[in-house]
Amino acid sequence: MMSVREYAEDVNKTVEEILKKCKELSIAVEGEEDLLENDAITSLDSEINSTVEEISEEEDLDDIAETITFNEKIDADNTIKKQKLKKKTVPSNNKSSKKDFAKKKKEMYKNKEKLVSNTPNTDTNVVLYKEGMNIGELAAELQISPAEIIKKLFSLGVMATVNQTIDFENAEILVLDYKKELKREEKADVTNFEEYEVHDREEDLQERPPVVTIMGHVDHGKTTLLDAIRKTSVADGEAGGITQAISAYQVALGDKKITFIDTPGHAAFTEMRARGAKITDIVIIIVAADDGIMPQTKEAIDHAKAAGVPIIVAINKMDKPDANPERVLTELTEYGLAPEEWGGDTLVNKISARTGEGLNELLENILLIAEMQNYKANPSRYAMGTVIESRLDKHVGPIVTVLVENGTLRLGDPIVVGTTFGKVRTLKNDLGVEITTSLPSMPVEITGIGDTPMAGDKFMAFETEKEAKNICEQRKEQAKRKEQGMGSSVTLEDLFAKIKEGAKEVSVIIKADVNGSSEAVKNSLEKLDVEGIRVKVIRSSVGAITEGDVILAKASGAILVGFNVRPNHTIQDYAKENGVEIRLYNIIYKVVEEMEAAMKGMLEPIYEEKIMGSAEVRQLFKFSKVGIIAGSYITTGIIKSNALARIIRDGIVVFDGNLGSLQREKDRVKEVKKGLECGITIENYSDIKVGDTIEAYEMVEIKR
Known about the structure:
Elements (H helix, E strand, L loop, with lengths): L1 E2 H7 L4 H10 L10 E2 L1 H14 L9 H8 L11 H7 L10 H14 L15 E4 L5 H8 L3 H10 L12 H10 L3 E4 L21 E2 L3 E6 L5 H12 L14 E6 L2 E6 L4 H9 L7 E7 L6 H13 L3 E6 L8 H10 L12 E4 L8 H15 L2 E2 L6 E10 L3 E10 L2 E2 L3 E4 L2 E9 L8 E2 L4 E7 L8 E4 L3 H17 L10 H9 L4 E8 L2 H12 L2 E2 L2 E10 L4 H10 L2 E5 L5 H9 L4 E4 L2 H13 L5 E18 L3 E14 L3 E6 L2 E13 L2 E2 L2 E3 L3 E6 L10 E10 L2
Parallel strand pairs: 3-4, 6-8, 6-9, 9-10, 10-11, 21-23, 21-24, 24-25
Antiparallel strand pairs: 1-2, 5-12, 7-8, 13-14, 13-20, 14-19, 15-18, 16-17, 16-20, 17-19, 22-23, 26-27, 26-33, 27-31, 27-32, 28-29, 28-33, 29-30, 29-32
């Protein structure tokens, strides 16, 4: 709902004009602060859009500026007009561009075509009857004026107004008069549009630009490459310098386009995928020719492989005297990327982002993959897509950068993003130029959303504000009922069920104490084959389990296997919040045994580890009869004298055995609680160091 005054501002009319229209349409309002219901707004939109007039060439510049900015509510008094005029949305050397855009906007609203709904109904000869449908809405479906329907109803002996509900029987008679069929709407559940799949007819699909993300080690030239690609794509005649308004942009190569997304890092890329956003078609891994593959390069390769998209390797800095591309090619094979020139299937380009060498060939390779993959979308439906980034502006509210993945996004479209909704009030391309429509694979900046969404949130546009608001409310309710976002990762317990559903591989991430262990676990798991089901090791590395491992596991639906390593409490909590299972082992055959049993669906009852508490070693005491006593402070839970215990040093398990004894002052005790100090001995282990963590646990039998 909105007041008469707000609506008048929204459609660039005076309050008096709107009140007059309301009277004509029998809408019961009297003053500028009276509220208009959503149905009334729909009727007014239909009436005003059908009678909108062209803007004359002589219109005042202030009026044009008012139209251009769509009445953004800025908290200022007599400087409003000046602020709006300062908003440069087009090149400054084009004096008529503001007036042209205002005309284009008016024309767009006047001839705004109805797109294909995101609810299934493709038969143009069928009119859907929606529960509670009024005469104005039926008229819009039939593409006639409400007055025509009111007149026909009068001839049938029914008196009605434009906002009055019409029953199915009367609506059916009217629709038949126009040689169409009326059907009751069978609502498809689009509330969970993250997983909602639309089914487009083949004849409606058109080629769309590929969406590309560049990743790699810091200082290997990602930013320079993005800038160089952008500059080569700008037409010679374009005025002024190049200003990237948002963190995504399109470049042109002949009559083809490519969309580039500048993500802040690998974790952000994978976090977006973990939240259901699969916006990237192609990943470019950039490697410096004078530096070779570095830790972050390996990480980028892992993330790109997990995304399951084509990979192009760009060997950068070929202009440097110490460039050694052959070394890079050799290293790539070690990480499972076989270069095409060596008989593999990975496209490799040797480039210099600084001089521009090889950039055209790189862009051509992107288009080659796009042609092979045949990326298509349907521009004739309401838009669907993903949030790339968002920020809050104190003057205009939330400003959101989105990527349109399917359909067309237009000014004024009602839109649901995450658990908020609104109407698209402004639409800008990557140069900051205001536009009226955005096609598939196009990144745009929008305003009009009620709240600031998160990167990775999905959005969907709808036919009416009423429908968008209803979907938004349902999503809010679902979010409340959901304790915390659970990931899509697989647990050993439900693995057999997943396999029965048709899964052909089990994704695993391995973290181990040393290289030998990680390779041994990886090789053992990859040899498993249970009736055609294989284990796919996404990442195998050395070190403590990190937040990045959890994010990758969530995004990939993987089980996280720790071998002789222990995650700290923060990581354990983070994994639980994200629905990621961490399985910990210290014997290789146990890893293989459990995985194979799970794949066969024959898991026996197991013992589950229950952490009792942990202590920090702060001081060491040596006694000839007792050995080493660790002067410790209990940091969490409780330590009991009969507990199992492990020693953790820098995230690595250095010993796993039994706790020897507990001592408080001069007395032996059975347990010590959090916040107290005590002396601890460990059976058959004396190499304790200050700073070690002693973790006490017990094994509890769990029935499957």
